[in-house]
Write a structure and sequence with these properties.
Chain lengths: 490, 116
Amino acid sequence: MVPHDIPYSMIIIATLLIGAFISGAFAKMRKSLGIITGIIVLSLSFGFSIASAIDVFTNGVRIELAGGWLPPTGINFYVGPFSAVVVSIGLFLALISFIFQYKEISPEKAPAYLPLFILFVAGFSGMLYTGDVFNFFVFMEILSISGMVLIASLESKHSSFAAFKYYVIASLSSSMFLVGVAIIYSSTGILNMAFLSESIKGVNSDYIKFASVLIILALAAEAEMLPLGLWVPDAYERAPSFISAILASLMGISGVYGILRFVNVVFPGVEGIRYVTTTIVIIMALLTVFVTELVAAIQNRAKRMIAYAGMAQLSIIAMVGILGTEASSAASFHIINIMLVEFLLFMTTQYFTGMGDALGKNNFSVAILLSIGALAAIGMPPFGPFWSKLYMVISAYTAGCPLISIAIILGSVAEVYFFARVLYHVWKSGIKIASCPEKRVAVLMLVALLIVLIGIYPKIVISTVLPKMGSDLAGVSYLDNVLSVVGWSL
Amino acid sequence: MIIFWAYISAIGLISIGIYGLLMKRHAFKLIISLGLISTGVNLLLISIGYIIGGTAPIYPKNLNISAPMVDPLPQALVLTAIVIETAILAAALSLAILMHREYGTLDVRVIWRRLR
């Protein structure tokens, strides 16, 4: 159906990287030119990501070699079912957010702002595609530098300090990641994830355990897990809403994906490391779930509350994702849902203008959209997250971790409380909502429709996409796929 | 011996950075502390790839290599890391300018109090 011999992942990343600078140059001439270039670049890469997803699901995993160099010397991109699907959704949401910001960006800011936005998306795609540890670090830094500047980009109140907080944590975590990589490289001499997972087995496991702790802690900052995720509430609250939406749905997911890649693919061969990695991830995640759900309940500002709720969901995904293939399927289902729900929630909160009149006719549609987002985030039946939460509860229980199931259920109960407060204020009294242009409502309706469709027909997703995504996330036959390119076999 | 001292200086730089991060409350000093930490990490990476008596990893024209070559990969990594750090540093300093414009101070404690 789609051509097979095109290196999709590299084309997507190259399009985004080159397009970022072209759009900046055009924006310098005229803002609208820059925006149009950006839309073309994002749509092109979205199209390629869809094509790569179709190809992956028909022909299996694609291993693409950068510059034709064979791994472990060269860098390879690993386009599995998971990354193909998640990058497609991410690029779709980024495209919507990019179109939405048209009016908010002033012509003086556009030449710097537009490239940063596209670079952010490039960092996200790169992190999900790459099969090389250091390359992963480079894309992570592209993502975090551009994310940091995007938070403060529109100079909204207190945003500079929120971005500075993120800078301190991101910089510290990138140093920790590098030390971890240095330890791994000094004991194996390899940076390719697949080959690393094999050659790491014979190494003194104490060094690797220390490195694994450093790397997981570093990624936890990106995955919004406490204690390093403390930058999240401030940053998401102070950043403009279309930036918060894109940060919440892309950045956290890439961090969680990083943790799961390292725990499931790179480290598992080392003797006795399973205990160390799972303990750290589960302790941090449980801490995050309990603290954030409690703190969210006492928040009075909607964006801050949604940020806390999102942190809890990401931690749940990280916990469930390390429990095996079946649980990984559940986690990847929840990743799809959470990306859509968080995006919808943040996009609709930008129309809150303070306390005031009850709902009028023109802002009725925004209230509907917000309610869909809130009900879906709780995990109410006709929406997607209901099925993914249920799936996660069951698979965590069958994997022998009832504690995680209980945490998921308790978290949902807390969410009922604070999202009910939002719904009460929206429908009964209180929050004043600005009217939203019809075109924007239509686009957001598309996202809401996806959430509802997944909720009504969960079987289609569960039976077709999820098994492959789950086994990809759990790292099943990752090594074999890469080795088959080199022509080796174990 | 030289590798030993390289490790010691790397750990020293990282420790100074961590000390600054924990003890100082001025945004500019925090930025410098984080810069020190990443410089220490870079030094660590370089010293991992060093071989005693090794030469630069460049093939000479006549291919007459007398000494062993040091590992080129850590150097490539550090080169990338330095570029990334420079970008982060520039972004952080511009954030500091924005903060000073908004709050009139760079003392993190004062800004924190104003946030509430």
